[in-house]
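Step 1: inspect the first sequence and its tokens.
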Amino acid sequence: MAETKDNKQVMKEEKFNFDYVKLGLKCGIEIHQQLETSKLFCNCPSLLRDDEPDIIVNRELRAVVGETGEIDAAAKHEMEFGKKFVYQAYSDTTCLVELDEEPPHDMNRDALDVALQVVLLLKAMPVDEVQIMRKTVVDGSNTTGFQRTALIATNGIIETSVGNVRIANISLEEDAAKIIGKDADKVIYRLDRLGIPLIEIGTEPDIKTPEQCKETAEKIGMFLRSTERVKRGLGTIRQDVNVSVNEGTRIEIKGAQDLKLLPKYVDYEILRQLSLLEIKKELIKRQHHIHEELVDITNLLADSESKIIKSTISKNGKILAIKLEGFFGLIGKEVQLNRRLGTEFSDYAKTKAGVGGIFHSDELPNYGITQTEVDKIKKELAVGEKDAFVLVADEKEKSEKALKAVIDRAKYCVKGVPKEVRKANPDATTSFMRPMPGAARMYPETDALPVMVEIEKVKIPELISSKAKKYEELGLSEDLATMMSKSSWKTDFESFVQKYNHVKPLFIADVMLVSLKEIKSRLSLDVGGITRNELSEVFNLLNEKKISKEAVFEILTAVAKGKTVKESAKRFETMDEKQVEEKIKEIIAQNKSANEKTIMGFVMKELRGKADGKMINEIVRKLVG
């Protein structure tokens, strides 16, 4: 914790002065990356679609016991919602495997080979035989009610600027279906994403600072991209961050997509755990008690002007309340930026009961509930000066379920930090998703055969960082070399450098990465039609000195407008030095009173792209001076 500032001030300024060693920070990260192959257990393409599906399937799922003989806590939590699931699919890119109407095919060896390339890059120890497992998932994102996953390797290593981070496991699994829409009792999924191969890389809790967390994720991402077989774009790579501090517990932050925010996610979770531990200590000092009796105060608020209260009563709903002894001032305590203990209570109520939220005494009077009504509630519940209350307004069953969820969460306040999976929010805060899953969710897949690993046949790809250094040696700047190492043009770049030895590699890279982008952004032209062959034609003309460097941009602009390289290059055929000098003499003779700068303007307008700019400049200075 910051030594000179309280939590609220730290959060407001968003500056953290934590002593991570003293706090006992433990942090690990899990990377999930989609692979650019066909699906993992069938031959369907890994094609994401937005057009209208032509198959609709309705399902319900239930959790079953795992190898331990128990139902997993997270699966049980999801099953309690009783939700129905609607699956959308496409007859031309979705098969019976995704619909769970046919057993899985053999594991995609292409995807396995890509995963094994990553294993070698991370210096991990591959397994001898890949055993496919089932991981219970009852939120509807898998039609089977489980996710197929397989351990590929263990004991890898990542080198960072502040020390090594061990890789605990590398797995290959099928991605889940994507949510299209949902309401209180139904979720709509689309099956185009289901089954896309997903490589999962999990580290040990060796990460000691938030910045090291970001660096580790960046390096793993670089190793993955080095295979050149991973998908790119939003949603194709996801990070889950695990965080704990002394006296706290491991929390999994799910779905952190923005690398820049990773340090904040870690810091905010540290802050949250420290705040919850402070609340625990304060409750232990107080005469705290959680009353589990649900009190119906509907009649008490019959004349309330609160919109939510009035709406609930008009629909024959119930306003139920509970008393929390010793909780005064603590429910309203900030535990993250703009998130309070009351928000945590509300998350549980929303997630477990589907209500819109809760009211608590630390925020009242508010939301149309008056001080007079607050006083009535306190009297009805016998709330003292150090006590608090929580109320919910909804259908009776939902209100009861919501308050029971609040009671469960309130009980944990005296224990400290509950074990949870939390959703990553865009502002780097987190919200409750479900309890932390346990070992009960895993059991063997009986419909798919084990796969022998032939690691000796796997080729180690060149790292992006190695390519960048090689490009720097060719004369590219560090930034341009890094850009090229990540670019889809890199193979063509290397080929052109070898083929056109009279053109500097720096110029070739600049055309590919800068000039094409400028034509697109500044001139609003589509450069997608400028192919490898057309670039090759241009560089060949330049290599043979048939055009000048200055002509390249103009020719490519013409090509973007629909012309061919050959017809575009005609008006830019180079002139030799003698021809250039004769032309400049003509321009000077026609503009005898003009100064050097004006002459240069006339000359460049006439000769741009037909001769080297440096040569033109030297001749003008010689003749005019």
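Step 2: inspect the second sequence and its tokens, then contrast the two.
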Amino acid sequence: MRTAIEVSGVVQGVGFRPFVHSLASRFGLGGFVRNCTGRVVIEVEGDAPAVDAFVGELRERPPPLARIEAIAWGEVQSRGESEFHIEPSEAREGGAVFISPDVATCADCLRELDDPDDRRFRHPFINCTNCGPRLTIVAGAPYDRERTSMARFAMCEECRREYEDPRDRRFHAQPLCCPRCGPVLSVLDGRGEPIEAIDPIVHVAAALRTGRIVAIKGLGGYHLACDARNESAVGALRARKLREEKPFALMVADLAAADTLAHVSAVERELLVSAARPIVLLRRRDGAPVAGSVAPHDPLLGIMLPYTPLHHLLLREARMPLVMTSGNRCDEPIAHDDGDALERLRGIADLFLVHDRPIHTRCDDSVLRVAGGSAIFLRRSRGYAPLPLQLPVALGEPSLALGGQLKSVIALGEAKRAFLSHHLGDLDHPAAFTAWEQSIARYRDLCRIEPRLLVHDLHPDYASTRWAEAQPFPRLAVQHHHAHFASCLAENGERGPAIGVCFDGTGYGIDGTIWGGEFLVGDLGRVERAAHLLPVPMPGGEQAIRDPWRMAVSYLRAAGEPVEADGALLRAMDRGVNSPLTSSMGRLFDAAAAIVGLRRSATYEGQPAIEMEWLATGAGEEAPYPVDLDGPVIDTRPLIRALARDVREGTPTSRIARRFHATVVEMIAGTCAALRQRGAPRTVTLSGGVFMNAILLEEASRRLEGDGFRVLRHRIVPPNDGGLALGQLAAAAAME
């Protein structure tokens, strides 16, 4: 018999065709396998039991990197074939294309990297079918070498033999290369001029040991690296990069090195060594040998392990933890083009470690932390994007969701599939907005989805909203917190109804005020604002985000507490001049941080709230402050009065921070209980950037579950604005 099979999902760039060839050969079947746009087509011919066994293996035990979304098969006319072969790919229109994320270097390649007798010994671009670059080198679909940045490198005879040998691990590995035919490393000085170096890695490692800052061309862009133990080097990097206090990420050689710096749980260990190799936030060990400027006052360290052969070689040669931060200045996008990197990083880097393989798609490192025993994304990017997610409701037409203004991620949707981009940054910066526009065009081309509907945030001044208004497409605005709520429902495969607890810093409300402390009730397509924090003025508008003392003035004044402030500021608040009302939980955190004297000004987004969590971590249980939960408006004035009294009486700030967290948990539990009494559902979603706070997430979940609620939280996309695009697509599908 002969059977035709079509397989869709992440089945290109993951060794699927070599796997099929090997499987067919094992069962003695003839036929072919071929990449087509968005799918793999297979025909196998042979004895019926062997064909059935082949289909069963294909369904139940695909290659480890593959993600089969759908498989269909049926009997066709026999051709009398006894040999199996791989046919050339077909690039035809129609059907979404699944692009694989980049994959960390596998154990087999690492063994060869360390083997002096192997021809790829110390080859910084070693890879095989099971590992190596994917998204960052792909220029088009189907996934074949001629449509990647490896097209310029002609394979040598030995590599060609491996590529064409079905028994070889590198059979049809598109990034395949060796020292004779692959990319080449070189070292440039701070002006971009070549430096003679017998071994570029040895040269750069020596420079790092002497306190130099090096720009390193990686997988999805450039990193800026220095000795993480060297206070002078780390301080210089901060000054040159214009990054005042936001923590730097670290890269260490292996798990043993990570253990010397931080406490690593079993779940965190699994994340660190996964094929995605994200940055994982870990609890710092006392006396960890890193410079204080790496993560000022932060009890957590962001640590990742090497994920390319170049990283492995460099970390082994350097023999020290390295700061490994995005190659940019402040809020610019990460540099990935060589000319742009030399221009933008000149004056920051003392040296450049570069290679001649182009990066087609820039892609920052992913960031996760563990809360309540499971992972939560802070940034979903390299290693995960653009793996598709399933929508609970099918879209009526192909759609493009534009995300928000900060932590931007776009999403292309077709039917029940949502393809989320890598992290694209904050659109406040012109260069970031340009990169965002380029990414929209790139993902439309890569995924082969032409949207007929644009879905965007309700905020009229978001760059994404203005862009949407200028496009010749129908568009749909989804309120910010509705999108957060829908995002959490969608990733859990749910439509609702549910209570949505949506806590963040800023979101444009349907009444024109700034929301962020919201309790919604509804489903994917429709929500009602059932309760919210008491709105207070935000003196100075967005300047209040950078100056938390302004929110302290606003909250203290609302609570009837004495305040010391400029008279002009107070008059502006009274008249509503540049003082929009806000119900934001993020701004309440800012006020509390300023009142306790923790933070009068913020040097990066969310810093006051993050430091309040640090302060509360490890403190003993505390009773909550009083809060008036009667009615739909949660009156925070009793909380502010009690908190201010604790400050005046000299209560330790760690106790105050712990009481504040307990109060927020009480707000959540009490309000959800009141809403349930009024007929709201027993399912609760927790979404918004405030739920990156591990204390709140863990304790609110535990309290709600103890009160009989079913709690949904984020595990696949971030609770912050990086998850908005998924929610926008899910809401649009339901609203259609």
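Step 3: confirm your contrast with the notes below.
The longest strand covers residues 498-508. The chain has a mean pLDDT of 94.
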